[in-house]
Amino acid sequence: MKVSEILHVKGNILYTATPDTLMVDAINTMAEKDIGSLVVMEFGELVGMLTFREVIRTMHFNEGSVGNASVRKHMDDHPLTVTPDTDINEVRRMMLEKHTRYLPVMEAKTLLGIISFYDVARAVLEAQSFENKMLKAYIRDWPVETDE
Question: Considering the entire predicted model, what is its pTM?
């Protein structure tokens, strides 16, 4: 299974912020849209990611407050990325090794979408369920052997 298949099922809704967006506004967007990440775009290009991990670090740094800083100060400015052709097993390995839950999907400099740990888990579960159904159907239709 490839990343492109996950994006096809998931859809292409993206929520973005600019580096100059205030953290409080970015957090409000994340809460209102019930999302765990924002893509940070500047001049049409991906420049970072803001996830709940950066939000928590910001609050820790500010002793429980978000502060007045912009997203630029707290975003991950070198996020890992994948391509549409990246295999799902490679994505799982990357997510586990790097402790990341959100990966931008890039084709050259074009952002195609974001896949999350949840998206990957759901895709794997659906693939396994389909395979399980096919195996059960195959076993159920197993031809009876006759001794001739």
Answer: 0.78
